[in-house]
Automatic annotation (TrEMBL), chains A, B:
It is an enzyme of class 2 (transferase). Belongs to the GST superfamily. Tau family. Its main location: cytoplasm. It comes from the Eukaryota. It is found in: Cytoplasm, Cytosol. One of its GO terms (cellular component) is cytosol. The keyword Cytoplasm applies. Keywords: Cytoplasm, Transferase. Its EC number is 2.5.1.18. This is Glutathione S-transferase. GO terms for molecular function: glutathione transferase activity. InterPro entries: Glutathione-S-Trfase_C-like, Glutathione-S-Trfase_C_sf, Glutathione_S-Trfase, Glutathione_S-Trfase_N, GST_C_Tau, Omega/Tau-like, Thioredoxin-like_sf. It comes from Setaria italica (Foxtail millet).
Length: 234, 234
């Protein structure tokens, strides 16, 4: 159990945002109670702990909730500064760079990729895919600058905030690729990111946090079926 | 001049995001060269310094750019940790709370208020206003929790990240109120935020960073006129 009080994580196994919290806690080597939340029957604890968004992840530390995945990752880094590897670099400019890319991933990459993920026809998929590619090009360029062609991760020699932000989508990206017949992180087009993805997925804390491909594929097919149905998700 | 290299800020006088950078630099008592950027003729320096978004603010410190307003505020706090007041609290949970509200302001409040700001008819304004009010209710509740009814600011006794995030919109909110015939931060409905706004605007570093009401009103009327014209802003 972590120093400074009990630790609980409210998550959903397939949520990229909950995966971020799991990876951060795993990298720090922290033990915690994991509580699975269900989209259509959210627990009272979730609703009380995150009344603004009612979304996972919520990290509850000594009874006090921390919400929003990127906020959680930074909280884990700061609350356990002396435990495990740092998740943000020491240098102020490097920290700004990590936050910049984390924001880009949520604001630009995800918004474009979400359209692909929610597409239910080949025509829409082709259109959405075209719109994601420029965001991935920007990320490839960003990775090149962050790693200077020498480092393994956005965060340098080890995983940091921006790696966790993007890496949390990797199994999802592959599952959507599988259904769409695409390969978003194609090694010919994006050699930096393709190699980065392999390195990220090989890290123990990541392996433990990631959903299993086949299970997520089934989940995604179910999601698409509901989306295509008249009374689908909104 | 700041320690550690020359300091330049690329901004636009009316940009709430540039105002955030100005307030942060002002609170820290830092001197810098301010470079005004124009939406329709962005400088080569801006395009080179922020190739991903090509947006203000960009803080250039010792030749290295920092982009994205909330990233800039945190950078200023960290790069000049020993200078002036802290912009984020020392406690990890309080820091998480500040980041949570800053994200809420950009993701939820601004997205709703932007619709009001871009409305060109009374009917659309009434509809948009109705959609902003719940976000302000959440902020009022958040302010009550952050300040515990005792503190002056979201950040406690002094201005912090969340105050700067929301406060940067205050003159804009009043200008849109003026044109719409509304009063968003009504003291009867939102007593906490209404009093907070007065305190925020009375701080020297804020007064120096804020646009003049009449000038911003003219700017906004021009914006609305272009928006209503066939070849308006997109």
């Amino acid at each position: 159990m972590a120093a400074g009080g009990e630790l609980q994580l409210l998550g959903s196994w397939y949520s990229p945002y909950a995966i971020r919290a799991k990876v951060a806690l795993g990298l720090k080597g922290l033990s915690y109670e994991y509580i699975e939340e269900y989209l259509f029957s959210k627990s009272d604890l979730l609703q009380k702990s995150n009344p603004v968004h009612r979304k996972v992840p919520v990290l509850i530390h000594g009874g006090r909730p921390v919400c929003e995945s990127l906020v959680v990752v930074q909280y884990v880094d700061e609350a356990w500064a002396g435990t495990g590897p740092p998740l943000l670099p020491a240098d102020a400019h490097d920290r700004a760079t990590a936050r910049f890319w984390a924001a880009f991933i949520d604001d630009k990459f995800f918004q474009a990729w979400r359209q692909l993920m929610r597409s239910t026809t080949d025509e829409r998929r082709a259109e959405a895919f075209k719109n994601v590619v420029p965001q991935v090009e920007t990320l490839e360029q960003g990775f090149r600058e962050c790693s200077k062609g020498k480092k393994d991760f956005f965060g340098g020699d080890a995983i940091g905030l921006a790696d966790i932000a993007l890496g949390s989508f990797l199994v999802w990206i592959r599952v959507v690729d599988e259904v769409s017949g695409t390969k978003l992180l194609d090694e010919a087009k994006f050699p930096g990111l393709a190699a980065w993805a392999e390195r990220f997925l090989a890290v123990d804390a990541v392996k433990e946090a990631m959903p299993e491909f086949e299970r997520l594929l089934e989940h995604y097919k179910g999601f698409l079926a509901k989306l295509a149905a008249p009374a689908g998700y909104s």
